[in-house]
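Q: Can I see a sequence and its folded structure?
A: Here is a first one.
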Amino acid sequence: MMPGMDANADARFPGHRFPAVIIGEVVWLRYRFNLSLRDIPALVARSGIVVSHETVRQWCETFGPDYAKQVRRRRPRPGDKWHLDEMVIRMNGVQHYLWRAVDQRGVCLGVLVTRRRDTDAARTFLRKLLKAQEYTPRVMITDKLRSYGAAKREVMASVEHRQSKYLNNRAENSHQRTRQREYAMRRFASPGHASRFCAVHDPVYQHFRPPQHQLDAAAHRGTLTDRHDTWNQITGDLLSQAHSAAA
């Protein structure tokens, strides 16, 4: 029996033959650990659960965005200092750019995939961040790419802008887990695939990775327990909504 299964573990999403707790567990495995779509069926098979890698992919695409949305809704308000950076990703032999913003605690605020690294792309990214976060930061920290400054003057003229290759390590470090997943997945298939995956992966991964260096062992265990309880609540709430919609 998998962790978190209880008397209500047999409750199912309409149209799905597996219990909701198994779907939630599979989505958690996919975004929390550096596992491929074929690793997860082999892992859950030890618990007597037989699923295909295609089923895992469909569950992650169907339920992952809703789970991530609820995780973002329940987390504390992000900080007022935004770190922005972009990394190169290649898809089908074509170079693209993955833009990411994090706050001073490393919480991901948003991602965007573009073909170009210019002012138009930076402007689009800043507008997307403002719409998603619904507040304006106090400080924006970037590298010395001039597109940031031009876009900032149009979109967030009153925000303090600091440009330095030494101040932006927090944003640059946030790309590392994406590189690891990109390697395990043998690159992203398309810009849409990269955007969808990162939009779910970042909040779910961070939800289950509290800052261990800031907590002692007991506090870290307690925080993880609370976050698993939150995850179980999220999956249960979405199950109730699905049954209400189907009624």
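Q: Show me another, different protein.
A: A second, unrelated one:
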Amino acid sequence: MAASTKPVVIFGSGELSEVAHYYFEKDSDRSVTAFTVDDDHLTEQTFCGKPVVPFEDLSNSHPPDAHDGFVAVGYSGLNKLRMDKCLAYRALDYDLASYVSSRANVLTEHIGWNVFLLEDNTVQPFVRIGNGVTLWSGNHIGHHASIGDFAFISSHVVISGGVSVGERTFMGVNATTNDHISIGERCLIGSGALITKDVDDEGVLSAEPAKLSRVPSSRLRGI
């Protein structure tokens, strides 16, 4: 079956929604026809030159037989908000679009709906990417790895071959894993963390932050 080219209605009206609008419009065969937010968050009538409509009325103004949805929400509540809004769309019979950058090197076909996969990602063969996953720019996803639904992988993360990342897990910038380990659901992996063994559900890992020297740069020698 041919991929859908129906116009997209983006949930959200913040920075991430603006970014999603840019990518869909500039680097996909989709157009963005409108934005939508919950009625109690409706503060403006237009965004990025497109109408903003209450989600409660969306199926009337932009019915699912003529439009697909996309949820442009970050990792709030360990990705629960994005998950909830995706499921709300699905409950109204909308299909959810995915964006895969033409500037990413993607060698798998196993990509779910509402995936946001940006430029300079390398996704090797036999990788499985679940529904609602965000892969910000510049990551390496090794062969036979799997990323669970609604996970958020920030930038320059290395997920080595055979690694399993659980649902709703967040991985910060420059996090790195050894191969063939399992990271549980709803984990929080901090920037720069090196993960060498399995992590249970709801695990929190952090790397040692850089320390500020007491010596100012003006007093350093040889610089």
